[in-house]
Write a structure and sequence with these properties.
The complex is a heterotrimer of chains A (447), B (482) and C (250). Chain A is of the alpha/beta class. In chain A, 23% of the residues lie in helices and 36% in strands. Chain C has nine helices and ten strands. Chain C has a six-stranded mixed beta sheet, with helices on both faces. Chain C has a four-stranded antiparallel beta sheet with strand order 2-1-4-5. Chain C starts with a strand and ends in an 11-residue tail after the last helix. The chains are: A alpha/beta (447), B alpha/beta (482), C alpha/beta (250). Chains in contact: A-B, B-C. At the A-B interface, strand 18 and strand 19 of A face strand 22 and strand 23 of B. Strand 19 of chain A pairs antiparallel with strand 23 of chain B.
Chain lengths: 447, 482, 250
């Protein structure tokens, strides 16, 4: 039973297959298999438990995106525009890679100047690397629903980068991947990150529009961390108001590896961010945190599965969000502790503030525990601004609007503090402050 | 006791499940299988009016097109609905008018279960409706309750004697087509209790129904309906046991509660159906739909459950908080051992203003069992100032069991304050050593610590039953350590 | 009462006790002093039967019985009591319930009749009063949210109610201010009798001003290196543990 939207992706695949990276190589068969799976399963929809709150099939069907074209002409980076998400991190010394419409833009990117032991290649050029092949071929059979939607990306991924850091090497400065949409349409990108034993890297991601309004950005990032490797990761999602953003990060951690990931969500009309963490060695640590601020008709769904399959690993997940207007926020989290994963410490927390009468939030923090000697906990709070705190501030002469902003930013700051890079954190905070100014916190919203 | 022959199937099991005996009594059964004729047979046996038969047949027609739900974390072989009996009743020529006319075997059975039905032996202040397979055997204290205006009788009797009340409320909380098992129940329900508390009446005693499955290969489909009119109060308790058998038996009950303005219903369950043996053979499949409707302002419904039995437990006693300022509570202890599977929790649906709810769930998994809390807290758009607090704690005993928490929290009104906390822990070696150093043997120490873990819930039970429930906690966990 | 011969104990493969010989007669109070890491707590755990403490050589006889053959609760029922250095929290189980469960379990194990609620309540009230253990405290879950002093008083209350024959007090003075120390010591002294022996484990001499021992043993690196009268404790207070090979004597 192939739904209409799946069929349109199949058609795209048939048209473009020979021009996609890896055509004629081992990847071609994998793409073929993935598109067949998609044809059988269709796009995920509301009746699937994991997609209960986001009907991706419905969203994509209504939007009916054509494939995004290769952009013609120059793209200007809006670096001077301090309030813009696309300009974020420009003051930080970094390696900059720019994608336009899901395709690597060599003119704007700086692929050189990397320290020894660090290899950064376009996806097409990395396909014959063993590690890259392993990353792409990796199946997440323990989380089948992650498998199914990432198949869409596997079939159609047109570009991306592959970062490899050799044993004991630290990437000298953050690698910043900037994804800009300059034209309407659907794009599919795939990034691969492999840090060998004791390697270290910091990766920033920005997803924003550079002129496009109506587009679908589909992205998968495969992360593989060797023994003792550390990846710091900060992602800003600041897509256009009508954009659909689908991103999946799949991370596998070896012994003593550490993943510290933070996501800030401000943009996109409909977004679904999926994070899957699998522990493959003990004493590893994963932090998957984030903040979101939504308004208008925005719909953002965060889905995070942390799978403890081995003993003695720790995970920490905390998402905080504020919701204004008619926006909808969703947090679905799951901590799995498999039978051998004794001494696991798994924590998960989500807090949401509803700022408007019409906003809504859904949370589903799950625990699935098969081992007894573990410490797992989750919590969820949903509410509005603390009226007593508001009253207190106003009694000190602070006007209501300012008082509300103060309390909301204090609320979000707690999450922003998780961002694993000091300068980046400061920029994220400034950006969130701008969200309030641009926002619709008008008097009639005050409930 | 010559009249009662005990069937003890596994000698080693006697201690663990002391309710495992069966009563040999001649019974009358509907023909095996489920067809429209079965439904007609049951309705005829109950001497039901035409409208009731139509209601059942409608349910049966719907049921034929429904599918068994698969979303719960429970696994079992496909049930053959045509290879079971849907009605079984002890043979009795005339309906007993008083205790003297009840088959003494039945009275002995209940006495053995710790539920004496003869007035002089009864627990003071507790009225009992005893349901044996598909029929109510006897209801005690009926007359005394009548004086207070309280109706407490088998539902089959209520259908005949109070048709207007039954018509008005039956299916009004759990609609006929609510779910596969509830629809099945609507078609074939045999007996259960009906309680009606008139306006302003505080029920003078605890009401209690004791359900016993005795026959082989027989499902039990009881239906309970409790209506509390404005300003009334009732506390109701149900207990359940079944003999040890190798086969699985289905129990698919429906319970509906209606609380009008300022009314309060407190519903407690001690569920101890036969859980199956060490290898997971036999045991009751307990698929139950329980829902309360806080229809009136300031009404309150409180569910307390101690779930220790059944091979599979699938139940979510819920509250629809319709009336402004109404309150729902769910206190649960779910213990699973050996190969038991529990998927249980609650739904708190906040529709009215200033409604509040509280959920305290304590799951204890031992042996090779699986124990899932599944719950929903939902705040609708017009529900202002909703408050919910949820606490879900899981305790794991041993490394072969599992514990899961699946909460759904949905808020569509900004004035809601919803808090949810969940933890998972085990009994620490330090705690065990400390208790044992004080002379408490290991199994008793585990029971002590687990009872401490469950304290917040045990405190919600009526006094008479709290002590029993504490003992049950200990018995259910026997063999889980060491 | 208690006779320990050539006791060697390993924890996780490391030998902690390396040949202890100790005899405590009926009615005697012995103090074990020693620097951190000398094996004091190991001795208390091995006497009470905690898992993970492996006896590789030697024997422990209590009233002529081989203690090592007995389970933890059997030892307790036979009258061996350990007052914990860090009493354990038991959430949801009130102090009262715990006391009753423990006392009746021991009585049952000894073939004695269990105490009914009325008699039990009377007993607890009588024993609790001198220890300043209030009814309110008895209603709280055991040790949960108790202050350091409350925990130690609750330990001594348990001892007073269970009436053991051989009590081990493991650093009962730690974390106590002077007033609490007095209360606890008075509680202990009230239990001294010609039939009851005690082993008082402490780092400091201070406690022994209040609970005066018949004998003092110095434990160092898993061996008893010196035995003397109560004056030995005073000596140690002056000179410290340095001469007994302790590097980190605090």
């Amino acid at each position: 039973m192939t739904d209409a939207i799946a069929q349109s992706f199949i058609d795209t695949f048939e048209r473009e297959r020979d021009a996609l990276p890896g055509a004629g190589g081992w990847l071609a068969a994998r793409r073929e298999a993935a598109i067949r799976e998609l044809a059988d399963a269709g796009l995920p929809h509301r009746r699937l438990e994991d997609w209960k709150y986001t009907d991706l099939r419905d969203v994509l069907e209504k939007a009916a995106f054509a494939p995004a074209p290769a952009h013609q002409g120059a793209v200007l980076l809006p670096e001077g525009d301090a309030g813009s998400g696309a300009a974020l991190f420009h003051a930080i010394d970094r390696h900059k890679i720019v994608f336009v419409n899901g395709r690597l833009n060599h003119a704007l990117s700086d692929m050189d100047g990397l320290p020894e032991g660090v290899a950064l290649r376009p996806l097409a050029e990395a396909l014959e690397q063993d590690w890259a092949k392993a990353a792409i071929e990796r199946r997440f059979d323990t989380n089948p629903q992650a498998q199914s939607i990432s198949g869409l990306n596997l079939a159609l991924m047109a570009d991306g980068v592959a970062l490899h850091v050799a044993e004991g090497v630290a990437l000298d400065k953050p690698l910043h991947l900037i994804f800009l949409a300059a034209d309407d349409g659907a794009s599919h990108a795939r990034n691969l990150v492999r840090l060998e034993k004791n390697a270290q890297a910091t990766v920033f991601e920005t997803h924003a529009s550079a002129g496009a309004a109506h587009y679908f950005a589909d992205q998968v990032t495969e992360v593989s961390l060797g023994i003792g490797a550390t990846l710091n990761h900060i992602k800003l999602q600041d897509e256009a108001a009508k954009a659909v953003h689908l991103s999946t990060m799949r991370a596998a951690l070896s012994e003593k590896a550490k993943l510290d990931s933070f996501t800030l969500i401000l943009g996109a009309g409909v977004s679904r961010g999926q994070t899957f963490v699998e522990f493959e060695g003990g004493e590893a640590e994963a932090h998957v945190n984030g903040a979101y601020a939504l308004r208008g008709e925005q719909h953002a769904d965060q889905f995070c599965v942390v799978d403890h399959a081995v003993p003695e690993s720790n995970s920490h997940t905390h998402f905080k969000g504020v919701l204004d207007d008619r926006s909808q926020g969703i947090f679905q989290g799951k901590v799995i502790v498999r039978p051998d994963a004794q001494k696991t410490d798994g924590r998960q927390m989500t807090n949401a503030l509803l700022l408007s009468r019409d906003a809504s939030v859904n949370a589903k923090p799950e625990l699935e525990i098969y081992a007894d000697d573990v410490q797992c906990a989750h919590g969820s709070t949903i509410g509005e601004l603390d009226k007593d705190a508001l009253f207190y501030l106003r009694s000190r002469g602070i006007d209501e609007m300012t008082a509300r902003q103060l309390l909301i930013s204090a609320f979000l700051d707690e999450a922003l503090d998780y961002a694993p890079h000091e300068e980046a954190r400061a920029e994220l905070k400034a950006l969130v402050a701008g969200w309030f100014e641009a926002g619709s916190l008008s008097a009639e919203d005050i409930v | 006791m010559a009249a009662v022959k005990e069937t003890v199937e596994t000698v080693g099991e006697v201690e663990k499940y002391k309710y495992g005996f069966s009563t040999e009594i001649e019974s009358e059964k509907a023909p095996i299988g489920l067809t429209e004729d079965t439904v007609r047979y049951i309705s005829a046996k109950k001497d039901e009016p035409e409208w009731m038969l139509e209601w059942r047949l409608e349910a049966f027609r719907r049921w034929k097109n429904m599918k068994e739900p698969t979303w719960a974390k429970v696994f079992y072989p496909t049930m053959d609905y045509q290879n079971a009996y849907y009605y079984a009743a002890p043979k009795q020529t005339v309906a007993p008018e008083s205790l003297d006319e009840v088959d003494p075997k039945l009275l002995e059975t209940y006495e053995k279960l710790g539920i004496p039905l003869e007035e002089q032996k009864m627990l003071a202040g507790v009225a009992v409706d005893a349901v044996f397979d598909s029929v109510s055997v006897v209801t005690t204290f009926k007359e005394k309750l009548k004086e207070a205006g309280v109706i407490f009788c088998p539902i089959s009797e209520a259908i005949r004697d109070y048709p207007e009340l039954v018509k008005k409320y039956l299916g009004s909380v759990v609609p006929v087509t609510d779910n596969f098992f509830a629809t099945l129940n609507s078609a074939v329900f045999s007996d259960g209790s009906f309680v009606y508390i008139p306006k302003g009446v505080r029920c003078p005693m605890e009401l209690s129904t004791y359900f016993r499955i005795n026959e082989k290969q027989t499902g039990q489909f009881e239906r309970t309906l409790i209506v509390a009119e404005e300003g009334s109060y009732v506390s109701y308790l149900e207990g359940c046991t079944a003999p040890q058998r190798d086969e699985n038996q289905l129990h698919a009950a429906v319970v509906e509660l209606v609380a009008m303005d300022d009314a309060e219903i407190k519903y407690s369950t001690v569920q101890n159906w036969y859980p199956g043996d060490e290898e997971g053979k036999g045991g009751i499949y307990n698929f139950v739909t329980k829902r309360g409707d806080c229809r009136g302002r300031n009404s309150k419904i409180s569910w307390t459950q101690v779930e220790t039995g059944s091979a599979i437990t699938w139940k979510y006693p819920s509250c629809i908080l319709r009336g402004d300022n109404s309150r729902g509570e769910f206190y649960s202890i779910a213990i699973s051992n050996t190969k038991q599977q529990v998927d249980s929790g609650t739904k708190m649906i906040h529709l009215g203003k200033n409604t509040s709810s509280r959920i305290v769930s304590k799951g204890i998994s031992a042996g090779g069992s699986s124990n899932t809390y599944r719950g929903l807290v939902s705040v609708h758009k017009k529900a202002e100032n909703v408050r919910n607090f949820t606490q879900c704690d899981s305790l794991l005993i041993g490394d072969k069991c599992s514990a899961h928490t699946v909460p759904y929290i949905e808020a569509k009104n900004p004035t809601a304050i919803l808090e949810h906390e969940a933890t998972t822990s085990k009994i620490s070696d330090e705690q065990l050593f400390y208790c044992m150093q004080r002379g408490v043997p290991e199994e008793e120490a585990v029971a002590l610590i687990v009872n401490g873990f469950c304290r917040d819930v045990l405190q919600q039970l009526p006094m008479e039953f709290a002590v029993e429930a504490q003992k049950l906690v200990g018995i259910s966990l026997e063999g889980s350590v060491g | 009462m208690l006779e320990i011969k050539n006791l060697h104990v390993e924890v996780g493969g490391n030998e902690i006790l390396k040949g202890i010989d100790l005899e405590v007669g009926a009615g005697e109070v012995h103090a074990i002093m020693g620097p951190n890491g000398s094996g004091k707590s190991t001795l208390s755990y091995v006497l009470s039967g905690r898992e993970g403490y492996e006896v590789t050589q030697g024997s422990i006889a209590y009233k002529g019985q081989d203690v090592l053959e007995m389970s933890v609760d059997e030892r307790a029922a036979a009258g061996i009591f350990l007052a914990f250095q860090y009493p354990i929290e038991i959430p949801g189980v009130t102090t009262m319930t715990f006391l009753k469960t423990a006392l009746n379990a021991q009585r049952k194990a000894r073939g004695e009749e269990e105490l009914d609620a009325v008699k039990f309540l009377k007993l607890v009230r009588e024993k609790a009063k001198p220890l300043n253990v209030t009814d309110e405290m008895l209603k709280r879950p055991l040790n949960v949210g108790f202050s350091g002093g409350e925990k130690k008083r609750a330990e001594i209350l348990q001892m007073a109610i269970l009436e053991p024959w051989f009590a081990i007090l493991d650093e009962t003075d730690s974390g106590l201010d002077i007033d609490a120390l007095k209360t606890v010591s008075e509680g202990v002294n009230a239990l001294r009798s010609p039939e009851r022996s005690m082993l008082v484990i402490t780092h400091y001499q201070r406690l022994l001003d209040y609970i005066v021992p018949d004998k003092v043993h110095v434990l160092s690196k898993g061996r008893i290196v010196k035995t003397g009268g109560k004056e030995l404790a005073l000596e140690l207070e002056k000179s410290g543990y340095a001469e007994y090979g302790a590097d980190e004597a605090a």
